[in-house]
Structures are given as C-alpha cells and as structure tokens.
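Molecular record:
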Amino acid sequence: MKTILNFFKYLICYLFYPISFIIPRSKKILAFGSYRGAFNDNSKYLFLLSNIYKERLPQMRLVWISTDKKTTEYVRSLGLDAYYVGSLKGIYYALRAKYWFVNSYTSDIMFCLAGGATVVNLWHGVPMKCIEFGITQGELKKRYIDKEFWDVFFHPAPFRRPDYMGSTTPFFDDVFSKSFRISKEQCIHIGCPRNLMLNEPKDAVEQFAKKYEPQHVNDLIAKLKQFSKVYVYMPTWRDSQANVFANGFDLEKFNDTLKAKNAIALMKPHVNTIIDNSKEYSNLLFINNKTDMYCILPFTDVLITDYSGTIYDYLLMQDKGVILFHYDYDEYVKEREFIFPIEQEITGKRVYNFDELIAAIKNDNDKVDEAERKRIVEKFWGNTMLQNETHDRTWKHIENIFKQIKIFE
C-alpha cells in the first residue's frame, strides 16, 4: 500500500513539474531549504547571515521553505520568513523564487517545483569519499550507476543537475564536476557558510546561538564548560547503517576513562544514521542526529572521527586535537572508495582499535601537526573561508556567493 501511495505521489509530481518551468520567477526572491525538512547546514547559515545583513540586500525576499511544519514554525519563531512547502504560500514562493539554495538536492525544497529555478547546491562540506555519480562501488553504486527505472522514478532529485555547485578550490572542482555531471565552470569557490562560526570569538558564537539555536543547544554549550576537556565523536554514514556506537566500542570503559579525566564526549551520529541511545552515561552524551553542531564545535577540544569529511571543517580551527578511529578500515573500503589516499591528506593521531583509542585519550595523544594542518587547509579550502580576514568577514563571504551566481547584476 505504501508503495502504491508513493507511486501516485511521484506521478502527480511529474505531471506538475513541466508547469514549474513556465511560472515567471523573480530575481528578488531567494528560497532556502535543507534535507528532510530540517533547519540546518550551509543553507541555514546562509539564510540566517543574509538576514543579519538584510540592509545590504535591498528589496530581497529571503524565504525558508520546508517539508516539515514544525521546522516552519520554528523558523517563524525567530522572526524570519518561512513557509511549509505544502501550503499555498509555500508553493507560491517556491515557484516564484529565481534562486534556490539547497544542501543536497532540489528535494530539500520540492523537486516538482524546481523547473526554471537557478539551483545553487551548497553541499555539506568537502568530501573524503567518492560521492554521487563518482561512486563506482558499494550499495550506492546501484542508485547512481547501475540504476533501474524505479531507482530514478522514486529518487528523481539527484538526477536534476545543479546550476551552480559550491566548491572550494580547483582540486575539488574536479571532484564535484564529475560527481554531479556538470562543467567545472559551474563549480563556484564559496566554501561553507556553516564554517563561519568556527573561528568567531566564543562570546559571539554564544550570542548567535542564543538568538537562533533551540534552547537545548544553548544548554549543551553551558554544560560543556563544566568539563576539563570535551571530545566530540562524529563518524561518517555507513551504507550498511551499522550502529557506529556499538561496533568497536566498549561504552562503559569509554565513559570511565573520560570520567577519570573530568572529560565528556559528545556522541553525534551522521544525520542518516539511527542509533539506540536509550542507556545514559555520566560522561557520554548522545546527541540527536538532527542537531546542528556548528555552534557547538568551537566549544570542543578534540574531534574523534573515522572517514568523515568533518575533519576538514575541524581543521579550520587552530589548537584543536584530532583522533582518527580507523577500527574497520579494511571492511569500510569495501563499501566506499576514497577520492584520494587518505593517509596523505589527514593529520592527528590515527588509532586502529578501541584499546589504542583509550590510550590516546588517557595520554592526551591527539595533537595535530600545525604545518600539515595549514597545508591541508590551503589545499582543501583555499581562501574561501577568509581565514586571514579580520573585518566584515561574514559579509564578504555572503557577497562572494551572491556575486558568483550573478544576483548583484
């Protein structure tokens, strides 16, 4: 029954899609959205920061459009313009907006309303692994490469190529152009708006969080100040959806090790990973997979990760530690392939089993080689995050994005 209902839902979408090409669109209306109706990631920060600098965007209408009614209500509670995509106003602004800013695909707003829109895919960071149409092995290869009719029918959004792709350097232009089947000229060097928070003064981040983040994020930031050291574990998504907080982990021992150091670990799964966090620990805090971490990361000291591109965001911050927990490397490379030999493009302490992880924590063995950090930041980010800017850095970042997609023409 569910399959039948989905079939008719998508059929209606396909019938409506051609109409979205003939609706006149306004360059003064900018629509923003994110995956699964959430309010997060790069489109969230570009939307918020653009609203902060609204006086520099005369006559621009900035609209958040969500597939989730609760998200819409939350964004409205911030005093910002937001609509549920299933409402008449949601459909109207999605059809009238000339520019769409998304984190993944047009499904971040609604695929069948995207015809005629200029779609700017901000993506979610710089990748370590092959993505989308660059994937040549594993489960996801079936969707993008070995696709059948129904794969495309029920997942049309990935096959709608973006007009612009958020990139960082020529190195990643090669990756994104191949992965999204676009020209390198469509890859624009804009970095990630979410990362602007990482190098702001902490008091400025707290003020931003108090204004725009839900109360539980502010409570968490306050809680972290009680500990001598804060770890954050952010593993990548597994195609197999394995429980990444069970495999390779003795949670009791992990908790006891942290307790002895007056340290805490934030256990944050990938947004697509569902975990069992029913048991509570004194020094382990399981974070909802939809929680936006980018106002929280500046208040952490060490990133523990595996094969997640989050490491490249984290390396934008100085004086932070990194532990690379590669306990299942041989198994993982059978599922996904890397864009480059990761040994050449990582820095921090690399451990291969749980005992080595515990030893690294006990000995504070998490230092990042500063020369390597700078080299990687230069290669992966270039000047897109305006690391050396001290004045009006946020506005310059927004202006750079809008100039490259010709909003200011």
Q: What stands out?
A: The chain has a mean pLDDT of 91. The chain is about 35% helix and 15% strand.
